[in-house]
Every structure is written in C-alpha cells, then in structure tokens.
Amino acid sequence: xSRLTVTPAVSQQTATPGxxxxxxxxxxxxxxxxPLFLVLWALQAFTRDxxxxxxxxxxxxxxGDLGWIQIxxxxxxGALFVACAVGLRRVLYxxxxxxxxxxxxxxxxxxxxxxxxxxxxxxxxxxxxxxAGAPEMSWHGALHEVGYVAVMLSWTAAxxxxxxxxxALGQRGWARACVAxxxxxxxxxxxPDPDSFTTRxxxxxxxxxxxxxxxxxxxxxxxxxxxxxxxxxGAQRAASHGTRxxxxxxxxxxxxxxxxxxxxxxxxxxxxx
Length: 273
What we know:
mainly alpha
C-alpha cells in the first residue's frame, strides 16, 4: 500500500507597490494647492477691514496683524507644488517632459515660497496707516517681486514643455489647452484697464493653478490605471506559477515524506510482510 499525504499550498499575493500610492498623494498635492490658495485668499479678502478687492492686490494681505495667514498661504501652497513636482518626476521621467516639467513646477512652488517669506510693501492705504499711493520698494519688497516673476516665468515655460509632450503623444486637445491657458493668463494680466487689474490677477492665478491641477489629475489617473494593470498581471503570474507547481508535484511523487511547508505532495510506500 501507499500512503498519500497532501498539504495545501500557501497562497501567494502580489503586493501593490507602495511607491504608486505615494506618487498619487504627491500629485494630489498639486490638485488641491490652487483651490486651497484661492479659498484662503477669498476668506481674507471679504473679512479683513479696509481691504478692497478692486484696489488692493492679494499680496497686501501678508501685512498687518493677520498677515501671517496670507504668508502661510503662500508658503504652504508653494510647498504643495514642490511636492507635486516630485510626483511628476516619478511619473514622467525619463520620458518626454520628465526633466523640465517637474523642475518648472517646482520652481513655481519655490517662487510662491519666496513671495510668502519676503512680504510686499504697504501701499494703497492698506493696512491702516499705509500711504495712499504706491510705496517705495524695500529689499524684501523687491524679493517678493522676484518670487512673483519666478512664478510667472516657470509656469509659462512649463505649459510649453507639457504642450510638446501632449503633441508628441497625439493628444491635440491637451496640447491646444496648454497654449490657450498661457494666452488667457497673459491677456488677463496685461489688459489695459488699471481699475480691474487686481481682480484680473486673481482670475489669472486661478487659470495658472487650475492648469497644473488638471495635468496632475490626468497623470494621477494614468498612474492608477497602470498600477491596477500591473497588480492584476502579477496576480495572474502568481496563480499560474502555483498551478505549475501543483502539477509537477502530482507527476513526480517522492518516496519520502517531504515538502510539507511548500505545498508539495509526497508518497511513501508501505510494505506488507
């Protein structure tokens, strides 16, 4: 007689790569950065005494007793864009826009941080006690303007970098959108109407941050699809591997009891005397 001993094989699962979830969170930072900035700006613009949306640029909110709120708004939003740049690098590199796209988005974030750390000069009657006209520019006011210029230049360059990527991939709608957002931001910023300048700057900022959010959201969705596809293929390979091992064990039984931990099948003969 023969005694047949069968031990069940240990199931195997393919773990989803943790870096994919981390990358998705980094891209999400770029999605929420713009709405967070604009919501905090609006709360201050409509609640702080003496602030006039039609006369005062958003940078003046960094002044006064509550100026720390807008300073934090600039710095936190900039940090979120820097985090988004790291996520863009992970998704795009070494493909098209994989080098300069993330760098320029990171430069945008760095410019916002500079604009927050170095506050603008008081003017236009805000905050209370400030001169009514344009102020004399101080060193920190000059550095604030440098941060603003860095934001504008890096964002504009990023749009054209991503346009090349979308055009190469045959995604003409996205390629045209990259150019359209640049044109819209420039028209809003340069329109010859000084009375609506501050309002138009806010709208242009929404266009700029919205573009980065749209690109990050698209790449995040693509990254999730690739992650699920990779996970499914790994599970199929694991199941196929387990089936082959079971078939081999049945085909070639051994004469000694072995392999219990690995799920193999052993046959040991029993002799009758």
